[in-house]
């Protein structure tokens, strides 16, 4: 399963110029600098210290998906580490977004696997099999995420896009990024930002 569109050149911060919703909490930060991933969400809901549902989800994952994990408020246990990273890469998963903590940071970096999370913890989840679910609507970073929603994550944060609107938003963002290059050139040539802004507002 792969995304229908190429979002590799789109910045979440550009989307933030014209969208107000769909952005996860800035507390979720990328472990690997300068990385961008995008793809349909494989959602997982995990309860407390029970890691069993992530095992099931990773076993069902398809290439190109981004794992999105709802930790249901758990701010103590790490649900992701060296083994889950290896399992995700083996299934072709391109990244993970976790509303919680990870462990084994050096192993994740060594595998060059992009992860966005709230931080690190040495206390891990266990395969208890007490509950949870995957491929259901979850909450992650304050945003509702449905299976197959398009996830775009980069150095600025994580955005969630409706799969039917993602291409339209990407086209608008791409145009804005091209326009920004012209603005930067004009600033370097000596124009002030106020002059550029006023000229943009004048009718053609």
From TrEMBL:
Keywords from the UniProt entry: Magnesium, Metal-binding
Pfam families: RraA-like (PF03737)
Record CDD domains: RraA_family
Keyword ATP-binding tagged: no
InterPro entries tied to this protein: RraA/RraA-like (IPR005493), RraA/RraA-like_sf (IPR036704)
GO molecular function, one term: metal ion binding
Cofactor list: a divalent metal cation; Mg(2+)
Domain of life: Bacteria
Record carries keyword Secreted: no
Binding site for Mg(2+): 104
Alphabetical list of PANTHER family matching this protein: 4-HYDROXY-4-METHYL-2-OXOGLUTARATE ALDOLASE 3-RELATED (PTHR33254:SF4)
Protein name from the UniProt record: Putative 4-hydroxy-4-methyl-2-oxoglutarate aldolase
């Amino acid at each position: 399963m792969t995304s229908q569109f190429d979002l590799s050149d789109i910045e979440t911060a550009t989307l933030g110029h014209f969208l107000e919703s769909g952005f996860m909490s800035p507390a979720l930060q990328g472990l690997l600098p300068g990385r961008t991933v995008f793809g349909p969400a494989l959602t997982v809901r995990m309860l407390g210290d029970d890691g069993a549902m992530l095992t099931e989800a990773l076993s069902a994952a398809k290439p190109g998906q981004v794992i999105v994990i709802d930790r249901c408020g758990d701010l103590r246990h790490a649900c992701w580490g060296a083994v889950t990273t290896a399992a995700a890469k083996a299934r072709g998963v391109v990244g993970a977004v976790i509303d919680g903590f990870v462990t084994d940071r050096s192993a994740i970096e060594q595998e060059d696997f992009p992860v966005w999370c709230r931080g690190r913890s040495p206390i891990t989840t266990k395969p208890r099999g007490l509950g949870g679910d995957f491929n259901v609507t979850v909450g992650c970073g304050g945003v509702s995420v449905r299976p197959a929603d398009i996830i775009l994550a980069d150095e600025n944060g994580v955005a969630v896009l409706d799969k039917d609107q993602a291409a339209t938003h990407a086209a608008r963002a791409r145009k804005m990024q091209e326009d920004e290059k012209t603005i930067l050139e004009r600033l370097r040539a000596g124009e002030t930002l106020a002059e550029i802004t006023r000229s943009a507002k004048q009718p053609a």
